[in-house]
Amino acid sequence: MKLWFDEDIGRGVPDALLAVDVDCEYVSNRYPIKKGTPDEDWIPYVGTEKLLVVSCNREILRAEAQRNLWIQHGVGGVFLTTGQERKRDVLLLILRRYDWFEQIDAVKRPFAFTTTVNGRWQSVDLKN
């Protein structure tokens, strides 16, 4: 499993995860997707690479064109429910629920889940 963090998460959480050997990438000049890259450009990349997206940007699932790209490119991801979560809480969520992230990474793509920082998750119907 390799996690991919949308730029709305920032670099603190993925840098902390990299420090404890969790395989991940994030929006940065050191990785293929640079800051400011439109969603329409990175969605095909993460689908091709089979990366598990972690994002706060639930608008991706609401915007028909982006949701269609998500489906077309077979993307899997987890969206935080408020977008206002503290970085520490996001980090703790991933570390505490790492087994769950591995389980959903094995699910047939495309898929999307929402989750609270307490780990209460819900599957998203991508067809709506």
Give an overview in words:
The protein has helices spanning 12-19, 39-49, 59-62, 64-72, 87-96, 98-105, and strands spanning 3-5, 24-26, 52-55, 76-80, 111-115, 121-123. The chain is built from six helices and six strands. The protein has one domain. The protein starts with a strand and ends in a 5-residue tail after the last strand. It has 128 residues and is of the alpha/beta class.
In short, what is this structure?
Helix content is 39%, strand content 18%. It is an alpha/beta fold and 128 residues long. The protein has one domain.
What is the mean pLDDT?
95
| Domain unit count | 1
Number of strands: 6
The radius of gyration computed from the alpha-carbon positions, rounded to a whole number of angstroms, is: 13 Å
Give the percentage of residues in beta strands.
Answer: 15-25%
Structural class: alpha/beta
Q: Supply the number of helical segments.
A: 6
Contiguous runs where pLDDT drops below 50 for at least 5 residues: none
The side-by-side strand order for the widest beta sheet comes to 2-1-3-4-5-6
The H/E string reads EHEHEHHEHHEE
Helicity level: 25-40%
Give the distance, in angstroms, between the N- and C-terminal Cα atoms.
28 Å
The shape is: globular
